[in-house]
Task: structure prediction
Amino acid sequence: MKKLKRVSVAVISAAVLSITSLLSSFAVDAAKTVADNGVMRDHMSAFDYSKDMGLGLNLGNTMEGYWLDNNKQYTGAQAIGSNKPQDYEKCWGASVTTQEAINGMRDAGFSTVRIPVYWGNMMNNDGNFIINEEYINRVEEIVGYCRNAGLYAVINIHHYDEFLIKRFSKEECTEIFTKLWTQIAEHFKDYSDYLIFEGYNESLGGGYLDSEGNTVDRPRNEAFDWTNTLNQAFVDAVRATGGNNAKRVLIASGYWTNIDLTTSSQFIVPKDTVENKLMVSVHYVDNSMYWTNKIGGTEWVNYSVNQCELLKRAFTDKGIPVFVGETTSSYPRSNFARNATVTTSSEALDYMLRLITSYGFTPVLWDTPNSFYNRSSCTIKSSTDAKVISTLAEEIKVPVITEPDTTEPEPTGPETYTVSGTVKVSDSDTST
Result:
């Protein structure tokens, strides 16, 4: 009798595991169809999306994590652990991303998650540049977490762009990135417009490796040509896949995502086959002041406003929204100015996010595992930072546009924003 009982329990346990596995599989499939309905809101412009995207957070040091292997001339990535997607996801200190972690981002006040991706991971080093199926499926799972939480998801090519640009010719890179973006776009073709593609990270305009492995800068005109060519290749590749990708919002990356360079007249926004579906990505409005220890002072204010004015004149005044794909989440005390009037990290965070959003730009905080946001507790670590995000998220919250707006459009440009002190805006030509 005992033997029969043990067998019965074993059989039942196996049956339960089998059913659980089937239900889990069904739940994943159901989530893809229920959480994301594949609908494209055709009446929305890139500016409408930019407003709706609210505040964003990067899933940093996660799917873009890799270990460099210079002998892998096509993938640049070592094999890690058991060579599963999660091995790479964790290699820079992240935990495996969960639905709960993404839900916590939503609950904190974020509406957008940027998911940087190194697509060379798990790829065969044969020069065919075929993205590994397991790896892209794991990226899709994380996109699914974002959609289950009702968030926008932004995916890009991150760090792999740098590896390729340094080692291949412009013509070869154009072909490689076209192939990569064609695969990515085809895989995510049926997702709704809550999924957005960003072409690259910070490497457009980057240099090449000489025979000794040193990075050599390209001449400025040549670097701009690379930037413009690869952005156009990205847009063309995605649009060519058709379906929802024919009108999905795309983000063209700036020259090094540097504001001064990207606002130059030499930077060309890609031509598109559909109107009002492009944004431009830059990083860190206050970058120079951060690294020269001038945070919180008048010079920090003036510089940051001037950077926003450059972006306004170059893009938003011309109908192109600005996506600040990485902006500072934490300000160390050592980097503040001696005469700072904004004196804490949370105050600087609040000031900078309010400045960026007052111009109509979309800010996405750069964050690495458990630095600003704790992925275990699923909360923002600092209570004062959490208050900044929740308060501003509520203030800028706009309803999702479900019907065409027949009212007269408001003039483009920043909302009124008052800062203390004298704001000096350069009138100099931004061309370089």
